């Protein structure tokens, strides 16, 4: 198995240090205690009930989407065995209703896996970010909230830089450089449980007989374990596996993309999909021609 390499850590991070030193390195970084002063973090350190009470103050009853899976899922939101569907169901509910269900599930001997992912805070918890201000990023970069129990987000990547701040619980991030794409055994591009393509390998129990190159990915991986108040910076397209380690977890993250314009852009994934559809069935000699054309005009 993996010989764990720890992600570099920083303390007392200022906006200047973040902008001039951490981001230009283009590597993940733990920012210890970055948001320990947040009222949300202070409430979470008291209890899960106090953390929920803090969040409910801002709940306006708007409906968001929660993911729910059977206890047999082990908290891993993934495909069904035949890859034709997912092992979870979705339902619409308010933040407050979800929090009540989540607290109630903690007393169950075998609780279902429950998760709210990437919910825009200005839409569902207006004014929350005025009490819990990001110390590093401009106000125009809005926060999203992730709430759940002991669940796992399968290895995936984002087309943006990511600053993830832990409010409650503990989380373990395992990160892989972008060049490990070929060793992660990525699943379907157009059909994914996470909205982005995910690795088909179970990081907790990797089947190296079936996925032998994953051993090389593990050799390049870094691990970061966060406590409430800590944050992690994950650069554009770095792959990351996220495991929540406690029955109650809350994380707030911020995505931004310096390469994007102010206007809506077509995702590079759409260009990739079009290229796949138009080039994959060409004869090998013609595909080699298009490899050269792409290298010249795009790269």
Describe the protein's architecture and organization.
This protein is of the alpha+beta class and 299 residues long. It is built from nine helices and 13 strands. A nine-stranded mixed beta sheet has the order 1-2-11-8-13-6-5-3-4. Strands 7-12-9-10 form a four-stranded antiparallel beta sheet, covered by helices on one side. Helix 2 runs antiparallel to helix 3 (48-56) and helix 3 (48-56) packs antiparallel against helix 4. The model has no long low-confidence stretch (mean pLDDT 93).
Residues in helix, % = 25-40%
Strand content: 15-25%
The DSSP helix count reads 9
Poorly predicted regions? none
| CA-based gyration radius | 20 Å
Number of strands: 13
Broad shape: globular
Query: Largest sheet, described in full?
Result: 9 strands, mixed
Elements, N to C (H/E): EHEHHEEHEHHEEEEHEEEEHH
Strand order of the largest sheet: 1-2-11-8-13-6-5-3-4
N-to-C CA distance = 36 Å
Query: Kindly state the mean pLDDT as a whole number?
Result: 93
Structural class: alpha+beta
Q: What are the SSEs and their pairings?
A:
Layout: E1 9-11, H1 15-25, E2 29-32, H2 39-46, H3 48-56, E3 64-69, E4 88-93, H4 95-105, E5 113-120, H5 121-124, H6 128-131, E6 144-148, E7 152-156, E8 161-168, E9 171-176, H7 214-220, E10 222-226, E11 231-234, E12 239-244, E13 249-256, H8 268-279, H9 284-297
Parallel strand pairs: 1-2
Antiparallel strand pairs: 2-11, 3-4, 3-5, 5-6, 6-13, 7-12, 8-11, 8-13, 9-10, 9-12
Helix pairs in contact: 2-3, 3-4
């Amino acid at each position: 198995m993996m010989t764990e390499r720890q992600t570099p850590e920083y303390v007392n991070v200022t906006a200047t240090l973040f902008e001039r030193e951490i981001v230009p390195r283009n590597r993940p970084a733990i920012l210890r205690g970055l948001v320990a002063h947040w009222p949300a973090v202070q409430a979470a350190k008291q209890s899960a009930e106090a953390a929920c009470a803090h969040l409910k103050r801002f709940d306006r009853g708007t409906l968001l989407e929660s993911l729910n899976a059977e206890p047999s899922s082990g908290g891993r939101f993934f495909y069904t065995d035949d890859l034709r569907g997912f092992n979870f169901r979705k339902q619409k509910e308010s933040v407050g209703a979800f929090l009540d269900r989540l607290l109630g599930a903690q007393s169950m001997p075998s609780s279902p896996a429950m998760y709210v992912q990437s919910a825009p805070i200005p839409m569902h918890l207006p004014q929350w970010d005025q009490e819990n201000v990001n110390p590093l990023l401009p106000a125009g970069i809005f926060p999203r909230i992730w709430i759940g129990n002991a669940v796992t987000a399968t290895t995936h990547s984002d087309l943006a830089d990511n600053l993830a701040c832990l409010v409650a619980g503990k989380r373990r991030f395992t990160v892989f450089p972008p060049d490990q794409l070929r060793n992660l055994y990525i699943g379907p591009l157009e059909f994914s449980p996470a909205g982005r393509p995910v690795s088909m390998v179970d990081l907790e129990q990797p089947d190296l007989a079936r996925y032998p190159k994953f051993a090389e990915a593990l050799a390049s991986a870094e691990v970061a374990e966060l406590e409430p108040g800590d944050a992690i910076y994950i650069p554009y397209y770095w792959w990351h596996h996220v495991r929540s380690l406690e029955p109650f977890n809350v994380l707030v993250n911020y995505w931004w993309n310096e390469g994007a314009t102010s206007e809506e852009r077509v995702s590079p994934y759409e260009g990739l999909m079009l290229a796949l559809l138009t080039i994959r069935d060409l004869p090998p000699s013609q595909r080699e021609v298009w490899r050269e054309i792409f290298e010249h005009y795009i790269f």
